[in-house]
Design brief:
By secondary structure, this protein is mainly α. It has one domain. The protein contains seven helices and four strands; from the N terminus they run ααααββββααα. The protein has a two-stranded antiparallel ribbon with strand order 1-2. A two-stranded antiparallel ribbon has the order 3-4. Helix 1 packs across helix 6, helix 2 packs antiparallel against helix 3 and helix 3 packs across helix 6. The longest helix is centred in the first third of the chain and has 19 residues. It binds zinc ion. The site of zinc ion has 7 residues, from loops.
């Protein structure tokens, strides 16, 4: 094994280790093998991120999820659902770098962080998952690896 191959293998192991550190409900989604139709890791990641956002939505405490906001001047007409809008990344626990920010706007700000879109600093966890997907897409043993898992 060349030094370069050794480094690639070490990097791959580090990426797998990152995915093992996240809560199981997300690790399962992040470790999914790309199916045969997937050509680019980013396309795979977009689907994975939507599944993660759905999972977060499901796990939000229902009391936190919807709070009825009552307008003082018309209590009946203006009872409307309100969603707490910010949360830290559940994968890497980061918050936006803005001073005083308590979390990413859910779901759009968090989606940007998870995808690294619009110049957002990409989540190191989804980045590791994307690179693992890339490894799998470019591995000549792709389907053998899939059966082994
Ligand atoms: Zn993150």
């Amino acid at each position: 094994m060349t030094r370069e191959q050794q480094l690639e293998e070490d990097l791959s192991m580090a990426r797998r280790a990152i995915l093992e550190l996240v809560p199981e409900i997300y690790a399962e989604i992040l470790s999914a093998y790309p199916d045969e139709s997937v050509k680019h890791a980013y396309d795979w990641l977009r689907e994975v991120v939507e599944a993660i956002l759905d999972r977060i939505e499901e796990t939000l405490d229902p009391h936190e999820k919807i709070v009825l906001v009552q307008a003082p001047y018309d209590p009946d007409l203006l009872l409307r659902p309100f969603r707490p809008s910010r949360l830290p990344c559940p994968l890497c626990r980061r918050k936006p770098q803005t001073v005083g920010a308590i979390g990413f706007a859910f779901p759009d700000g968090l989606r940007r962080h998870l995808l690294g879109d619009y110049n957002a600093t990409m989540c190191p966890v989804t980045n590791a998952a994307k690179e693992l997907c890339n490894e799998r897409l470019h591995s000549e043993f792709r389907f053998i690896g899939r059966r082994r898992d």
